[in-house]
């Protein structure tokens, strides 16, 4: 989102094909002033829900 125009609702409505799979184990897009949106699929195999967070550094 180089122009930083999208909001969360707009990103959620984007088709899956809009996102690129990360090559390798790290998403390294270099340092720039762009806004980056990441789609992450999580699979909880426990019988109860769990909380958590994602830290981007």
Account of the 3D structure:
This protein is mostly loops and 57 residues long. The protein has one domain (1-57). It has 1 helix and no strands. It has one helix at residues 8-12. The longest helix is centred in the N-terminal third of the chain and has 5 residues, at 8-12. The two termini are 18 Å apart. The mean pLDDT is 86.
Secondary structure layout:
Blueprint: H1 8-12
Concise structural overview:
The protein has one helix and no strands. With 57 residues, it is low in regular secondary structure. The chain has one domain.
In the predicted model, the low-confidence regions spanning at least 5 consecutive residues are none
Q: Treating each run of at least 4 consecutive H or I residues as one helix, how many helices? A: 1
Mean pLDDT: 86
Share of residues in helices: under 10%
Distance between the termini: 18 Å
Class from secondary-structure proportions: little secondary structure
Largest sheet: none
> Which overall shape is indicated by the principal axes computed on the Cα atoms?
extended
The structural domain count equals 1
State Rg. 14 Å
Amount of beta strand: under 5%
Strand count: 0
Output the helix-strand order: H
